[in-house]
Amino acid sequence: MEKKHAESLLNTYIKSNSLLNHSHMVAIAMQASAKKLDKNENTIHDWWLCGLLHDIDWEIYPDQHPNHAVEHIFPILELSDEIQHAILAHAPERTGVTAETEMDCYLFASDELSGFIHAVSLIRPTGYDGMKVKSITKKLKNVNFAANVSRDDIYHGVELIGETLADHILFLINVFQDAKQRNLIN
Questions:
Q1: Is pLDDT at 1 greater than 90 in this prediction?
Q2: pLDDT for 8-44, tens place per residue?
Q3: CB of 116 within 8 A of CB of 154?
Q4: How far apart are CA 171 and CA 168, in angstroms?
Q5: 101: which DSSP letter?
Q6: CA-wise closest residue to 119 among 96, 148, 91
Q7: Crossing angle, helix 17-36 and helix 102-123, to 10 degrees?
Q8: Domains of the chain, with CATH numbers?
Q9: What is the tens place of the pLDDT at every residue in 125-164?
Q10: What is the dihedral of CA 102, 104, 109, 113, to 10 degrees?
Q11: How far is CA 35 from the centre of its chain?
Q12: Pick from 140, 130, 128, 138: which is nearest to 180 by CA?
C-alpha cells in the first residue's frame, strides 16, 4: 500500500487531530526503529504502515479495537499477516495476542511511550526542543500526569525490545524532534 493511499484511508476513519498526530508519531517511530535495525526499504515501509494504521478503528469502534480493523478493514487492503499480528499484539488484553516478532515488540514499545512523550511536549514552552530523558522519566513517576497512559505497557515495551527505558526515550525524543522540525507531527 502506497503512503498516499494509507494516509487517505487513515483520514477516512480518524477525524480527531490528536489521534491523527498519534498515528503519525507511531508511524515515524516505527520507521526510525526499522532503519536503526538496518531493515530493507520494503520492511521499513511495512513498519511505517503498521504504526500509521495501528489505531485506525479506535475512534469509531473503541470497544472493538483493534479486532474490528483486523476483521473488517484490513482484509480489503490485503495487509500482510505480520502487520496485522503486530496490530493485534499492541492490545493483548483485548485480543489475547502477545508480541512475538520484532515488529510486534517495537509497535508495543512505541505506542504508549509516543503518546506520553507528546503529552510532556504539550506542557513544555519549547515542546520537543531541548526535551531531556529526565523530564520524561520524572513525569512517568507522577501517576496523575497523562493518567490514561499505561506505565506498565511502557516498561514492558522496553523489555520486549531489550533496551533500557532511558535509551528508548532518548531515541524517540530525537526522532520526534526531527519530525517536528520537518512539520511531520504537532
A1: no
A2: 999 999 999 999 999 999 999 999 999 999 999 999 9
A3: yes
A4: 5
A5: S
A6: 148
A7: 130
A8: 3-181 (1.10.3210)
A9: 999 999 999 999 999 999 999 999 999 999 999 999 999 9
A10: 140
A11: 15
A12: 128
